[in-house]
């Protein structure tokens, strides 16, 4: 059923009665009615391959996840002040994926809440309030999260970095300050410099926070040794390191279950969000015993919904499905295949200036021959791929990076189908440089 008047009235209602800064994808918005594995189905019954949604980690409406949630919902849902096996099982299963040092978990309901709690923990542990964060990093929508998110305070409507936030230059080795050998060390020297500036003022960092692949900045992979050296600089001053795994975690990078493991570091606090609940609001903060002890200073941490039996049943099933369906292995193999094929595509279509990322967390950047960003082309690509039945999105400060982070059931067949249409779209005159 295609009823454009109906859609127009829904858009008008949204505009008038929903939050005025909510965005809507596409000029001709889509009304999605069903999800199925790697696909979304709109109100006309048209099926779209979803290349954007890393929240539906094990696939949209995965039957086992749905069943686990429904069954527990029919039995009991209440807060975590009663004993319940679901929260214990999820804690045990989740913690088994971490280095032994990370052995305490707090359950929350969103990535923002997870980072909000991590910020409180770092303040409690160190008694400090200065944070070092990444240029163009995003960590959530709460007050404290916005205050450490350069993507927001340096972007539209933002007012710049607050007094206690210190921003490290984005370690972009394609268009950034440094590239080539030792770029990681050079970028990390800025972290050491910021730490020193704090020490000179008689202050210390509470924490350094970063993703392991900087998503909102346009899928920027951290150069070798950056994280190792940055962590060392912060540890040396008695600060904590927080890994934000909200986007990249739970096997998505392929070689490892957590993104920070790509860099051989162990953070003090890890925040987990989107994928853990496969669309259900479930998130977590994992930390060391020492950090957890310091946070428990007598004030109770109560979270009405965090760790409830329904959320935990869902989280447990998500972890189980990742294992059963070998989705981390799939992210590695399919991701490598897709990255290789995209590199071939870049050789054929020079508008693709860079292909990057790990596993099923990839991106490709559109530039002209003078390395100027091509936002119009990137947005046209999203539009033309939509017309062919693919959901994609753009990202990065210049809006010229295409992100690829599909549900992890995305396989080689899906990749081939996508690549075929991408090739056809890129052949149009508009994309010639
Ligand atoms: N951290 C990162 C890296 C994110 O990408 C996001 C959401 N895009 C968040 C935190 C906040 O998560 P949520 O929207 O679930 O609050």
TrEMBL record:
Top-level taxon of origin: Bacteria
Family: Belongs to the class-III pyridoxal-phosphate-dependent aminotransferase family.
Protein name per Swiss-Prot or TrEMBL: Aminotransferase class III-fold pyridoxal phosphate-dependent enzyme
Native organism: Salinimicrobium oceani
Lineage, opening ranks: Bacteria, Pseudomonadati, Bacteroidota, Flavobacteriia, Flavobacteriales
Segment of the intact protein contained: 603 to 1035 of 1035
